[in-house]
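I'd like us to work through together how a protein chain folds, taking it slowly. To get us started, please write out a protein record for me. Label the sequence line and the structure token line clearly, so we can match residues to local backbone shapes. Once you have written the record down, we can walk along the chain together.
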Amino acid sequence: MIRTDIHTHTAFSGDGRSTIDEMIGRALQLGLTHYGISEHINYDYDRIGFTVDGEPFPSTDEAAYFRRARALQKQYAAKIRILVGAEFGYDHSSREQERYAALAERYRPDFIVNSVHTCRGDDCYFPQYFSGKSKEFVYNCYLYRVLESLDAPYPYDIVAHLGYCSRNATYPDPKLRYEEYSDVLDEILKRTIAKDKILEVNTSAKTAGSPFIPDVDILSRYYELGGRKISFASDAHDTSRVGDKRELVCEALKKIGFTCITVPDRGKHLQIEL
């Protein structure tokens, strides 16, 4: 059974619904050995002026988050390894990339999740991203942005939720299939391996057409290409989803051939048996 969950959010994030204390309490109830908090840092939103229902997406109070999380990390050290991380919303702007690098230097997160949320001036989750455009076009736009993000000039550990664009897509068949985007997906997977990064399996799949993203076809290709570093992420924003579908993911990974889950911890990649 997977005893890790390395991508979650608390009320420090603008869309988090449970407090950091509540989330850690839930992780303890579930018997997790490694629990990662990765609050949103959305400099990409800042640049494009992204809004939700006409209001700017709330920024994370970085200083308050790291201060509180580090204190809790020490408090619970004998019971659970709390990893104090961050999720960077990749942006192609060199100015925003410099801001991320400066934050990484200032707070020294235990791990960094590198995520693509925005593409073509919008968040790939919201309906307007898909409006009037073909699935092939918008999915390729997203995937090539992911490929670009792998060369981000700041230290990151995890390549997050590959297939994010399918989570809330408005197409009758939203599923992201390897066979339909094999060229760019192969480049993403090969570069992830070459850079010694960790590919995330994320169970916040919404209506993506599979229980987790990326799905088994893409994970199998990653394994075939030599990729062995996989992290488990519920992407929980409240206590109800911490560790969600972890047994399902564990069984799927074993069938492919994976034997371990990888946990990033201050530059080290820990291998935890499935």
Observations:
- Helices lie at 20-29, 43-48, 62-75, 94-107, 135-149, 182-194, 216-224, 246-256.
- The longest strand covers residues 81-89.
- The mean pLDDT is 96.
- The chain has one domain: 4-273.
